[in-house]
Design brief:
By secondary structure, this protein is of the alpha+beta class. It has one domain. It contains two helices and five strands. The chain has a five-stranded mixed β-sheet with strand order 1-5-4-3-2.
Length: about 90
C-alpha cells in the first residue's frame, strides 16, 4: 500500500499520538463506515479500526495512480459515537 500523508494528517497524527503504522493497519484491516463519493479530487471514505484497545478513525482516498491519500486520523469521541465507534449517536 502506497500511502501519501497530507500535511494536515501528519500534524493531527503527531498531536494525537497516532503512528503511520497505526494508520496502515486501520486501512488494511479496518471497516469502511462512511463513504464520501462527492469528495474531490477523489472520493474518500472513513475507516474504523483498532490498535490494541484503542479505536482509530482514518479518512482516506484512493487515487487513479494507486496511491492512498491519508486526509486525517483521530480517536473517535465516545460522546459522539456509539460504543462500537461505527455510527454517530442519535
Amino acid at each position: 500500500m502506497n500511502l501519501v500523508f497530507r500535511s494536515h494528517a501528519i500534524k493531527r497524527m503527531f498531536e494525537r499520538g497516532i503512528t503511520a503504522e497505526d494508520v496502515r493497519q486501520v486501512l488494511m484491516t479496518g471497516k469502511t463506515i462512511m463513504d464520501y463519493p462527492q469528495d474531490t479530487p477523489y472520493p474518500s471514505c472513513l475507516k474504523m479500526g483498532w490498535r490494541g484497545d484503542r479505536p482509530i478513525h482514518v479518512v482516506a482516498a484512493n487515487t487513479d495512480e494507486g496511491e492512498t491519500i491519508v486526509i486525517t486520523a483521530y480517536e473517535p469521541d465516545p460522546a459522539i459515537w456509539e460504543p462500537n465507534f461505527e455510527r454517530k449517536r442519535q
